[in-house]
Amino acid sequence: MTEGFKICYDRILPKEAARPLRSVPPGASRGGRLKGAGNIVCFWANGTTLNVRFMGGTEAQRVKVKEEALWWITEANANLNLEFNDKPDAEIRVAFDPREGAWSYVGTDCSMVPRNQPTMNLGFLDKGTAAHEFGHAIGLVHEHQSPKSPYGEKIQWNEPEVLRYFTGPPNYWSEKEIRENVINRYSADRVRASEFDPESIMVYWIPDEWLINGKGVERNEELSEGDKFFVGQLVYRQAERAAELQINASDTQAEIGKPAEEDLFEFTVEQPGRHIIETGGQTDVIMKLYGPNSRTNLIAMDDDGGEGFNAKLVTNLMPGNYFVQVRHYNEADGTGAYTLRVRTK
Fold it and tell me: In 138, 142, 275, 318, which residue has its Cα 20 to 30 A from 150's Cα atom?
C-alpha cells in the first residue's frame, strides 16, 4: 500500500463528550431513510450565509479551496451561502499549517471556537481534501464511522495493522486518536444516517490491508450522488415557510407539508427574561433556536423536551431578533401539522 497516506481527523469540542443521548419513548417507532451522515445538533439554519476567512495560504491554495468548498453549493445545491471575505468574525477560518494535517470542527461547533483561532486546517490539499473538510464545516461526519457503516460490524478491522500505520508518519496518532478517527463508529444518538455510501467524499480511503474480511474503499475525490442528495435535498434544502411570531400570542398553526420541509420563524425580544418556545400536536419535530441577531449562533436545540414528541426550550433571552427552525424528525418521509408558540415565563 502507499506509504505516507494523509488523512483527516475530527476536531471535537469538550462539550461533545457531555451531550445527552436522545430518548425515544418505549414502543415508539422513529423511522427515517437518509443518504449520508451528519451530526444532528451541528447543522446550520437553512439559508445561512457563512463567512470564510483565510489565515494564511498562497493565492493558488486559496483558489483551490474556494473551488472545492463551493461544490456543496453549486453541485449539491445546498441552501447555504459561502462568502470568502476575510471578515474578522467569520464563522469559518481556514489555516494552512502543514504540521497540523487536515481537520475541521463540525457545523455550528465552529461558532464556539475563539475568533483568533482557525476552525479548519488544510495542511495538505490533495484533490477533494478541501471539499471533505468543508463537508465537516457544514455538519457532515465521517461516512465510514456512521452507525450504519459495515466497518467495525460486518467487516472487521485489522486493528494491529491500523494501529501500526497511524502511530507512524505522517500522523503519529495515539491509540485513542486512532480509535476515535478510524475504528469506532458514531453513536446512533449523535448522528443521523442510513445505508453506507462507499462513494461519499466523507469516507476515508480504506486499503484492504486494514481489514480482516471484506473490501476496502477507494479514495473519493468528488461529491457522490448520495452526498448531493443528502445535503441538497434533506439537510439544506429551501425553506418552505418563513413567518414572524408574536410573544405571548395564540399558537401559530404550521405544517410540514412534504418530506424534508423546513420551517423558519423569527421573533423579537424587547425585554430580557426567561422565555419558553414549544411546539404542540402529534407531529414528531426537532427545533433549533438561533440568535440574538444571528442565524449562525445556535443557542439551543430540542427534540422531545415537550409533551410526547414535541420540542420545548426554556431559556433566558436578551433583547434582539431570534430564529426558530423546525423540521420533522424523519426527513425522508415525515409530514404533519404542528403548532408553535413563544411565551414569557
Answer: 138
Q: How far apart are CA 119 and CA 94, in angstroms?
A: 6
Sign (positive/negative) of CA torsion 244, 281, 22, 182? Answer: negative
User: Is the pLDDT assigned to residue 23 strictly greater than 70?
Assistant: no
Nearest residue to 91 (alpha-carbon basis) of 320, 313, 295: 295
Whether this prediction's pTM lies above 0.70 is answered by: yes
What per-residue confidence (pLDDT) applies to 146? 83
Rounded-to-integer distance, Cα 329 and Cα 284, Å: 6
Q: Is residue 1 in a domain?
A: no
CA distance linking residue 161 with residue 204, whole number of Å:
16
Range of the domain at 340: 241-344
Closest CA to 342 of 250, 241, 242: 250
47 and 154 belong to one structural domain? yes
CA dihedral 83, 88, 89, 94 (to 10 degrees): 60
What CATH number corresponds to the domain at position 311? Answer: 2.60.120.380
- In this prediction, residue 7 carries a pLDDT of 63
Q: Are residues 85 and 225 in the same domain?
A: yes
Q: Which residue has the higher pLDDT, 170 or 57?
A: 57
Distance CA 144, CA 155 (A): 11
Gap between the Cα atoms of 321 and 338, Å rounded: 23
pLDDT in tens, 89-108: 999 999 999 988 889 999 98
